[in-house]
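Hi R.,

Here's the chain you asked about this morning:
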Amino acid sequence: MYGRQQGGLAILISMILALALTVIPMSDVLRLIKPEWCALVVIYWCMAVPGRFSVGSGWFVGLLLDVLQGSLLGQHALAMALVAYITVNLHQRLRVFPVWQQGLTVLMLLSLYQLLLLWFDGIIGLQPKAWTYWLPPISGMLLWPWTYLLLRKLRRYYNVT
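And the predicted structure, written out as tokens:
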């Protein structure tokens, strides 16, 4: 089986699923707390296989997110590339952290991601967001252990190296 030997299919499927979870319609309450699925998956793959999934991959995923959401072209791409860059630089340290400490690091990375998007919104003249704008990084941190375990199981099954 080609996908099991190469593992690229596992990365591709997880990114497509994250993009789908990002654009799926939700109620107003759920939309407020919906985590940044793409950023979570990018953080995982940059931490797990930085030689295979890195800054360029993060930039490409961010660009796809810009197109899917109809936002300013490049804002998610730049924010995602920066998150990927920091994750790749810290991947050896992050790997040895317990999952709860990784979750705190993920909170900081997702907060940086949100801050960059807020900065872009300010540049183009959009009104500042309410305090609920900062709920997705918190929900991302809380969902990190399950995301990590699910993607690790996927990585091991498909032998992604």
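The domain at 2-157 is CATH 1.10.1760 (Arp2/3 complex 21 kDa subunit ARPC3).

Let me know if you need anything else.
M.
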